[in-house]
Amino acid sequence: MAATLAAASPRPQPARVAATRRAGREPTPSSSSSSSHSSGYNTFDIIRSPSNARDVRARFRVKGEPDAPSKEEIGWNAPPGIPPNAWSVRMHVLADVIGDDAGVVADVGCGHGLLAIGLSTGGRCVKAIAIDASAPEVEAASANARKARAFCGGDACALNVDVRLGNGAEALNVADATNVIVVAGVGAKTMINILEAAALGGDGPGASVERLVLNPPAKDAEAIRRWLMDSSRRNARGPSVWVIDDERLVVENEQLHVVVAARRATATPQEEVDAASASGSGSGSARPDLADVVIGPVLRASSPEESPLLGCYLGQRLEWTVDARDAAAAAARRARDAIDVPTRLVEIRAFVRWEEAGKPENTSEEWRAAEFAAAREDLELEIISGASLNDIRRRFDAETAGDGDDGDAKIRASADDVARWTREARRLNDAVNVIWAALGYHRTSSAVDAARRQIT
């Protein structure tokens, strides 16, 4: 397993997540640490949209806290030609994940171009290609490259940076022989569009790429992992599978960032899984489990000392996922409430459910009420999927009604919308359970580690 940046002196896990408790929802992590150690990351600010309950956004702010890892912990030094105050901790971590001897690196969406310049002057790559779709950004990157060259010794400088104006990876060509693509600071949708435009699995400019280093917003990391792990995606070179081999958490300017790195799979998905299991990472299944997608295959296997910010990430991920789940479930519920299914059909469906459960005896009133509600939901979902009440009656061998039998089963939202909200609510509920379990385990591990340090 690729470890995260090692701390010079271990810091304890965050002890508290500031979150709103609401009736009927999971408890949120509370301040329960009795350790004498104090945490530097214990206040989280969730930003919500007041206008639309479904438009919940978590910016993953770490309010009032310094950048992390600290410069002392990572032995921070700005590369030659980069002003020290311009080379941030996040760029340092990105460069560290890219590694040494990276070959040809393309920074797509380069902005000011400092990462590409720092990779080149720091000797981490043979060539850096800095691409941006904004002409002013390209001009700024070019100016920074000229300053870096002058600072490092003019024409004798080892700087090899090619700054290009272009629409993402479309500015690359086969002759570049790009080895690494870096995409940082954009949302999941834009990032995936950039990666797909690179034709990573075909004969295009991305054919030579063997490594991806991605820095999406923290809330978008799940979507990026899901895209990377999608083994059903095929191309001219066969299954386009990417194996996540490094993940880091970084705080910069009070924002929590996720860095995800992946290498191109060189074997079948199952062979990759076997290799990952032997090295201590991975889920042990050719199909990644939910924890790999939601938390990350490397992060979920990290100890509190390997990833001191993991508790922060899990706490905020939990809060955001609960809100998103509740919003999706509420939208689906409002739509289903508009469907009036005859009680007689619900009773028949509840009886069928009882038979399917093995005809249990001595059931409680609560159990029967829950089964009746579940039977009603089953029928509502059938109607949402396009079945009519007479279709359901015929399936139950019940007497059908005349014309207009569906007049009391009108759907106010589209069937596709309701089905999507329902699926999303169920998926997010599974994610909530996974995150909650991981957070509990991580906080327990932190308390044990803190106690062990006190004893020793």
TrEMBL record:
Ranges of Low complexity composition bias in the record: 30-39, 275-286
InterPro entries in alphabetical order: CWD_DUF7067 (IPR055495), SAM-dependent_MTases_sf (IPR029063)
Database matches in Gene3D superfamilies: Vaccinia Virus protein VP39 (3.40.50.150)
Domain DUF7067: 345-396
Native species: Micromonas pusilla (strain CCMP1545)
SUPFAM superfamilies membership: S-adenosyl-L-methionine-dependent methyltransferases
Full protein name: Predicted protein
Chain residue ranges for the region called Disordered: 1-47, 269-288
Domain of life: Eukaryota
